[in-house]
Amino acid sequence: MSQTIEEHTGARIARIRKQRGLTQQGLAMRAHVSKSLLSKAECGQKPASPALVAACARALGVSASELLGQPYAKELRRDHMDALIQPIREGLENWDIALEWETAPRPAALIWTDVQQALEQRRQAQYTDMVRNLPVLIDESVQAVHTSTGEGQRLAYECLAETFR
């Protein structure tokens, strides 16, 4: 059953409770609220207080905004991530084209140090910080690949491969 705009907070609590296979008594016990209060909120006899919403959200494993019916929360998160990811996409698409930089890139060994830091951010699940740094690392690696030779170029390719990873 999909959420509608007309659906009140109590109805959303009831819908998600049923999706989770819980009875009113079961949710009331998990949320540490009375069954009577939960029942009245679900049927719309009493408005769901912020405390009730928070308790039910914790017990159901959802965000309070989902129970409150804030319709654009997911879209805002997706838009924010898209804005962070788009520069990475562009770097991935143009890896084989030399960039028109007026200055030389840093030596590949210095880029490598920052690439290792990005990999550590990935291991630590610090994705937002990692994503902010990747476009520059990709561009620097691409430029180093096209302007270096020998060992410097090999290391630049390694930097590029690791940023892609």
What does this structure look like?
There is one protein chain. This protein has 165 residues and is an all-alpha fold. The chain has nine helices and no strands. Helix 1 packs across helix 3, helix 7 packs antiparallel against helix 8 (127-147) and helix 7 packs parallel to helix 9 (150-164). It is rod-shaped, with a radius of gyration of 25 Å.
Strand content: under 5%
Number of strands: 0
- The overall pLDDT average reads 86
Q: What is the overall silhouette?
A: rod-shaped
- Sheet with the most strands, sense and barrel status: none
Number of helices: 9
Percent range for helical residues?
A: over 70%
**How far apart are the termini?**
39 Å
Based on CA atoms alone, the radius of gyration comes out at 25 Å
* Secondary-structure element order, N to C: HHHHHHHHH
Structural class: mainly alpha
> Which spans have pLDDT < 50 for at least 5 consecutive residues?
1-5
